[in-house]
Write a structure and sequence with these properties.
heterodimer; A: about 575 residues; alpha+beta; Immunoglobulin-like; 16-stranded mixed beta sheet; three-stranded antiparallel beta sheet; B: about 200 residues; 2 domains; five-stranded mixed beta sheet
C-alpha cells in the first residue's frame, strides 16, 4: 500500500499508572514539583484534566465529586437551557460532509440545519481515508472557520471519524486553535486504520489504537491543543469492538477516551417502504465476521428501541464498565451522510480521490425516501451540562459525563442529583457523571426533576413521557477478565409512571444508608414498545424492544438515557 | 500454517468454479447434491474435515466452497480472529473428500462438538426458498431449532421470509436458526444476504 508506518510502540496499557508524569500525579504535592511541572499542573487543572477524568476509575479520584459539584458561573452568550446550575447545550459529535467518500453536504449545510433544529454544538467528522488524510483534513478547515463566522451561536468543532485499528469507527475531535488541523492530520496519517499495513496482526492493530489515543493526550499535555476527545461510534454494529479493547482505550488516556454512542445515527433507516428505506434502524443489519469478538451473542448486532445493545441492555456491557467504577459515557448522534426526504444529491462530475471532496451538492427536485439519516438535531441530541457557552465548556462537560441524551425531544429538561438525604440546597447535589463520597451509613437520595415536553418536536407532535426507570448497580471494582460484558448486580430498582397531562415530574428516591459502593442511572420512554430485558424480567421488566427490520418508525419509539452518578464510601 | 501453493490453487479454482448465490443478481436456490430425506443423523459417523485457506470473509469462503467437487453434504464456516481475522471451514463429504489444503483442527472440533459454526450446505437447504412456515423449515431441513432474537423459540406457525439465504448456526449441539421480526408480520433470518457495508472508504 505504500504508506507503511511501522509501529514504534506496542505498549499494552495495563501498567499505565506507573508512568504518570509528576504533574498529573496528585500524590505528589505542589511543593515537590519542579517549577515547570507546577506550571504544567496549573494548566492541566484549569483545563479540567486533573481530577474527574484523570484516572481510569472513579474509585481513584476522590476529588471528582468536588470537581463536579462546584458552583458554576454562567456564560453570557449562546443557546442552551439552564437547569440545575448548568447550561445544557445540545449537540451532535458525528456528522459527515462532502469530504467523506459516502457524504455530500457542505459544512454549512450540516451546521446550518443543526443550528436551525436546535443544536448548540456540532462536530464535523469525515471518514479517515487516503484522500482525507492527504487532502480533505486540510480542505475542510476553511469551511469550518467560515461556518464559525457565519453561525456564531453554534460551536463547530473540527474532528474526524477514525478507523480505529482492529475495531469500529470513533469520533476524534480537538479544541479549536492554530494547531487543530496539524494535530488531526498527524493523528490520521499515523494512526488511522486505512493507513496501516494490511499485514498487521490483531494484536499490533489493537496496540496502535491505544498508541493513537495516547498521542492525542500528549498533544494536550504539550499544549498543542486545549483538548482532544475520543468517542467510539456505533460500537456494537459489527461486534468488532471487543470488551477488552473498550477497556484498553479508556485506560490509554481517560482524559481523551471518554465514551461511546449509546445510540447510533441512521435512525430513519427503518422507516417502512415505500415512504422510507425499509431497512434496519441504525443500519444495524450485520452478522458476525472474522473480526468480531466471538463472545458476543447475536443480540449485539441489532438496535433495541433505537439504542445500541451495549447501552440498551440493563446489566450488559455498559453497566459492566460502570460497575467497575470505570467512567464511560454515552451519547446519541445523527451520523448524517445523506438525509431522509432531502432534495439534493452529490455534486456531479466530482473526483473525490483527486480533490479530497465532492463538488457542492445540487438540488434535484426529487425527494429522497431511501436515505437513512436525519439532519443533525432533527431527531437525537446529546445534552451536555456546561458551565458556559464555549468550546472548552462543552469538552469539559462531556469529559465530566454531565450528559443525558434523548430521541425525538422526548423530554424538555432534566436535573438529576444524588444528595445526602434531606439536603435540598440549590448549590449541592452531585450531578450526572459525578461521584458523591459519603461516610458509610449515611443516607442518600436521588432528586429528579424533569420538565415534560410542551413544544412539538420536528415530527410536529409533542412527545409524551410515559415512564422513568431508576437503574442501580453495585460497584465491585476492576474485573479480572477484561472481556467481561455483564453486570449481574445491576437492575431496574424503581419505575415511575408519569400521569397523563402532567407538566413536570418531580420525584425523590431514597437510596438507603450506604453500605457498599453503587451507581445509578436513569432511563425513560414513551412506553410504546417494550419487552423484558435480555438479562431477564427480574432485571428489566419493560426494557427496549428489538427493532423490526423494515418497520421501525423512529418517532413511535422514543427513549432518553442519562449517564451515571456514583455513590462511594469515604 | 497455510500451505501457500494449496491456497493459491484453491483461489484459482474458486475463480472458475460454480458459484453459490451470494449477490442479488444471481438466481436463488443452489442445487445441492443431497437428498432432503437425509437428516443430520444420516451423516453421523462421517469424518469432519477442517480447512483454513485464510478466506477474509464468508463470501469468499462460500465462493471457494462452491468450487468443490464433489460438493460436501454439510459445510460450515468458522470465524477466526487471530493472528489475523479469517474464515475457516468444516466439511463433511458423503464419500471421499477431494484435496482441500491446509487443515484447521479447530474448525473441525467446533463442528463435531456442535459449539459453533455457520452452516452453508446442509440437508434440505435447497428447499428453503420463498416464504415458509417455521414448522416447514424444521420439517424440510436439518435445522433443529428456530429462535426469535431476544424472544425465545419461534411460533411454528409464524411465516419466515427466507430470502433464499438461510445460514443456521451450531449452538449447544443443535443446528439453530436465529430470526428477527420484519415488516409484514414476518420473520427473516438473522443474517441477510447483503448487509450494509462498513461505510468508510479504506
Amino acid at each position: 500500500m505504500g504508506h507503511g508506518h511501522h509501529h514504534h510502540e506496542h505498549d499494552h496499557s495495563s501498567g499505565a499508572a506507573a508512568d504518570v508524569p509528576p504533574a498529573l500525579d496528585l500524590s505528589v504535592p505542589d511543593g515537590e514539583l519542579s517549577p515547570s511541572d507546577v506550571s504544567r499542573r496549573g494548566f492541566l487543572r484549569s483545563a479540567g484534566l486533573l481530577g474527574a477524568g484523570a484516572a481510569a476509575s472513579v474509585l481513584a479520584t476522590p476529588s471528582a465529586a468536588a470537581a463536579a459539584g462546584l458552583p458554576h458561573s454562567h456564560g453570557p452568550a449562546g443557546g442552551g437551557t439552564a437547569k440545575g446550575g448548568f447550561r445544557w447545550l445540545a449537540g451532535d459529535h458525528h456528522i459527515h460532509t462532502q469530504h467523506s467518500s459516502d457524504g455530500q453536504y457542505r459544512v454549512i449545510d450540516q451546521a446550518g440545519h443543526g443550528r436551525a433544529f436546535g443544536l448548540d454544538w456540532v462536530v464535523i467528522t469525515d471518514h479517515g481515508s487516503n484522500a482525507h488524510a492527504k487532502i480533505g483534513v486540510d480542505k475542510v478547515n476553511p469551511d469550518i472557520l467560515a461556518t464559525r463566522e457565519e453561525l456564531p451561536d453554534l460551536l463547530t468543532f473540527q474532528g474526524l471519524e477514525w478507523n480505529i485499528p482492529a475495531a469500529e469507527h470513533a469520533t476524534v475531535f480537538v479544541h479549536p486553535g492554530r494547531n487543530e488541523v496539524a494535530v488531526l492530520k498527524q493523528f490520521e496519517q499515523t494512526f488511522d486504520g486505512s493507513q496501516l499495513p494490511a499485514t498487521n496482526t490483531e494484536a499490533q492493530n489493537e496496540a496502535m489504537a491505544v498508541a493513537g489515543i495516547k498521542f492525542l493526550g500528549e498533544q494536550v499535555k504539550r499544549r498543542k491543543v486545549d483538548g482532544a476527545l475520543f468517542l467510539a461510534n456505533h460500537p456494537a454494529r459489527r461486534g468488532i469492538d471487543s470488551p477488552h479493547e473498550i477497556r484498553n482505550w479508556r485506560d490509554a488516556d481517560p482524559t481523551v477516551a471518554i465514551g461511546m454512542e449509546g445510540a447510533p445515527g441512521h435512525q430513519a433507516a427503518g422507516i417502512p417502504a415505500p415512504n422510507g428505506r425499509g431497512g434496519a434502524r441504525g443500519l444495524y443489519d450485520n452478522n458476525p465476521s472474522a473480526a468480531s469478538y466471538s463472545g458476543y451473542p447475536l443480540e449485539t448486532y441489532r438496535t433495541w428501541g433505537g439504542f445500541d445493545w451495549m447501552t440498551a441492555t440493563v446489566g450488559g456491557l455498559w453497566d459492566s464498565l460502570l460497575s467497575e467504577g470505570r467512567a464511560w459515557w454515552v451519547t446519541v448522534n445523527s451520523d448524517s451522510h445523506v438525509n431522509y426526504l432531502d432534495q439534493s444529491e452529490r455534486g456531479p462530475g466530482s473526483d473525490f480521490e483527486a480533490n479530497g471532496r465532492y463538488h457542492d451538492p445540487v438540488y434535484t427536485g426529487k425527494v429522497n425516501t431511501t436515505a437513512g439519516d436525519f439532519w443533525p438535531g432533527f431527531y437525537g441530541r446529546t445534552n451536555v451540562g456546561a458551565a458556559s457557552f464555549s468550546y472548552k465548556s462543552v469538552m469539559d462537560g462531556l469529559r465530566a459525563g454531565r450528559v443525558w441524551v434523548d430521541h425525538g425531544r422526548l423530554i424538555k429538561t432534566l436535573d438529576a442529583r444524588v444528595r445526602v438525604a434531606g439536603d435540598r440546597r440549590a448549590a449541592t447535589g452531585t450531578p450526572l457523571g459525578g461521584v458523591l463520597h459519603v461516610k458509610r451509613g449515611t443516607a442518600t437520595e436521588l432528586t429528579l426533576e424533569i420538565d415534560l415536553q410542551n413544544v412539538p418536536n420536528w415530527a410536529q407532535f409533542i412527545p409524551v413521557l410515559s415512564r422513568v426507570d431508576v437503574i442501580v448497580g453495585s460497584v465491585t471494582g476492576p474485573v479480572s477478565a477484561r472481556d467481561t460484558f455483564t453486570a449481574p448486580n445491576t437492575k431496574v430498582v424503581k419505575s415511575y409512571e408519569v400521569s397523563p397531562g402532567a407538566r413536570k415530574l418531580s420525584v425523590t428516591y431514597q437510596l438507603g444508608r450506604l453500605d457498599k459502593p453503587f451507581y445509578l442511572r436513569l432511563r425513560g420512554t414513551d412506553g410504546k414498545r417494550t419487552q423484558p430485558g435480555l438479562m431477564g424480567v427480574a432485571v428489566d421488566p419493560a426494557g427496549p424492544k428489538l427493532d423490526v427490520i423494515g418497520d421501525a418508525d423512529p418517532w413511535s419509539d422514543l427513549w432518553f438515557y442519562t449517564n451515571p452518578i456514583w455513590v462511594l464510601p469515604k | 500454517m497455510i500451505h501457500p501453493a494449496a491456497a493459491a490453487a484453491s483461489q484459482a479454482a474458486a475463480a472458475s468454479g460454480p458459484v453459490i448465490p451470494s449477490g442479488p443478481a444471481l438466481t436463488p436456490a443452489p442445487v445441492i447434491a443431497v437428498a432432503p430425506a437425509l437428516g443430520l443423523a444420516g451423516l453421523a459417523g462421517l469424518p469432519v474435515h477442517g480447512v483454513s485457506l485464510e478466506h477474509p470473509d464468508t463470501v469468499a469462503a462460500e465462493h471457494w466452497l462452491a468450487s468443490l467437487s464433489p460438493a460436501p453434504v454439510l459445510a460450515c464456516t468458522h470465524l477466526v480472529r487471530s493472528p489475523r481475522p479469517h474464515v475457516a471451514l468444516s466439511l463433511v463429504f458423503a464419500d471421499t473428500a477431494p484435496e482441500l489444503g491446509a487443515e484447521s483442527p479447530d474448525a473441525a472440533a467446533e463442528h463435531v462438538a456442535g459449539r459453533s459454526g455457520r452452516a452453508v450446505l446442509y440437508p434440505g437447504v435447497d428447499l428453503l426458498v420463498g416464504t415458509l412456515r417455521v414448522a416447514d423449515v424444521l420439517a424440510l431441513s436439518a435445522i433443529e431449532k428456530v429462535e426469535v432474537l431476544g424472544g425465545g423459540e419461534a411460533d411454528p406457525q409464524a411465516l419466515l421470509d427466507t430470502g433464499d439465504f438461510v445460514r443456521p448456526q451450531w449452538r449447544a449441539g443443535r443446528l439453530t436458526l436465529t430470526t428477527t421480526p420484519a415488516a409484514g408480520d414476518r420473520l427473516v433470518p438473522f443474517e441477510t444476504r447483503n448487509p450494509t457495508p462498513c461505510c468508510a472508504a479504506h
